[in-house]
Amino acid sequence: MLEKEKIIIIEDQPLLNSMMKEILSKEYNVICTSTSAKDMLILCDRYKPDMILTDVVTKDNVNGITYGKKVKDIYGNKIKVLAITGIPEISFLNKAKENNLDGLIYKDIDSNSLLSSVSQILNGYTLFPDNYIYTEENERFKDLSEKEITILKLLCEGAERNYIAKRMNITAGTLKNYISNILNKLEFDSISKLMVFCVSNGYIVPDLEK
Fold first, then answer.
1. Helix extents (H) in the chain
2. Contact between 158 and 209 (Cβ < 8 Å)
3. pLDDT the model gives residue 109
4. How far apart are CA 24 and CA 9, in angstroms?
């Protein structure tokens, strides 16, 4: 009998953690679970899994994509990393791709789709939605460029404007124009109000871990 492929689940919601373990255990060996992506590297070294299924926002707001990149940098294709999220954050999809993860899926999938997604990843495929899923409520974000999204995320993380301008390699005046364009596109009259709206509704999840 072939040995079952080994999977680690990282999910900070106990019920969802337990449900995913129950579903995946039908076809795979779920060797352990954790609530924080901070455990990812230690668990990989200890258990040598074939795949990690990680929530994007784990315990204490630790980012699963960030730690997934660290795993990929060390182990490459030896360990697959599939991110899963239920948050409508506008940058997760591109961030997962940029950080060389193997896929990103949403938590509203059924058990058969979860099993199918895991199977595809383990068989060497990448799995990403074609595009970020916009709804009637967040459709305005569709008009933002990648640079505008990055600027908005940095603002929501509390970065100073001088730092943002330097990081984006633009002048302070150009940054001011970008912020004005963001406000116009999203129909807000204040960057403070926009930041509160984005964070409170989950469209921006500040990566505050340094």
1. 14-24, 40-47, 64-75, 92-98, 111-122, 146-156, 161-168, 172-186, 191-200
2. no
3. 86
4. 10
